[in-house]
Description:
By secondary structure, the protein is an alpha/beta fold. Helices cover 32% and strands 15% of the residues. It has six helices and six strands. The chain has a four-stranded mixed beta sheet with strand order 3-2-1-4, with no helix packed on it. It has a two-stranded parallel sheet with strand order 5-6. Helix 3 packs across helix 4.
Amino acid sequence: xxxxxxxxxxxxxxxxxxxxxxxxxxxxxxxxxxxxxxxxxxxxxxxxxxxxxxxxxxxxxxxxxxxxxxxxxxxxxxxxxxxxxxxxxxxxxxxxxxxxxxxxxxxxxxxxxxxxxxxxxxxxxxxxxxxxxxxxxxxxxxxxxxxxxxxxxxxxxxxxxxxx
Length: 164
């Protein structure tokens, strides 16, 4: 497997994009929990990321609501099922960990869903920021709760302080 990476600016700080065999396999924020070691990202090379960068720019400009990119999500079968469910949460909406567990047919698995959600390797594009606690509260986010609040506010069209 050939891995490459590039770093792009965003309204939420620098984003490190990682490709495995030219397919997007990671999008990491600075100081992100569960961020792999830099040496695993491969050589710097912006070439595999043109379409991902174009779509991210359109998303941040408010012009794109649904990403359409090939992704290489590497995780356990359960994690991949959770990440697939994340991709079904519409732009501007949220789901609780319990609702995701129900959708997976395992209503008692909300903690396991939370752990899988936290290990999502392709933040923003696989929208783990759209998952909230059962009471509607913001709970853990690998990129930090401040970023989660800002992303949710951005998608809802509200000011970040007005939502929570």
